[in-house]
Amino acid sequence: MKVVKKMSGLPKEPAVSALFTGDVSRQVVFQPNDGQTFNFGIVSFSAHSRNKFHKHSSDQILVVTEGTGVVATDNEEQTVTAGDVVLIPAGENHWHGAPGDTPMAHIAITAKGSQTTQTEP
Fold this sequence. Notes:
Elements: E1 13-14, E2 20-21, E3 24-28, E4 38-45, E5 49-51, E6 54-56, E7 60-73, E8 77-81, E9 85-88, E10 94-98, E11 104-111, E12 116-118
Antiparallel strand pairs: 1-3, 2-5, 3-4, 4-11, 5-10, 6-12, 7-8, 7-9, 7-10, 7-11
């Protein structure tokens, strides 16, 4: 076992990026240079916030940990709640967040080196 971290003890940092709308924060669980083969972090969306349409060069897994939110593609929109797990295939145009009146948080996992391309202005 390499590391045990408590999610509640990780500092929340503002997610400052053109990819996000509204109040979004991140908790970095593992630094990119920690030697793992994946990216793993926690993203918290306040009510009425989300990310813009984007694609990843690897599959993405979202594990909803709090609240109610939405995951949407060009063709579909799904409401998600705590305990839901979402698999977004590499290259699929999508967004996720809390566009409604409730906040939502999720763990996001992608392959190490995965590139994100924003497709919505």
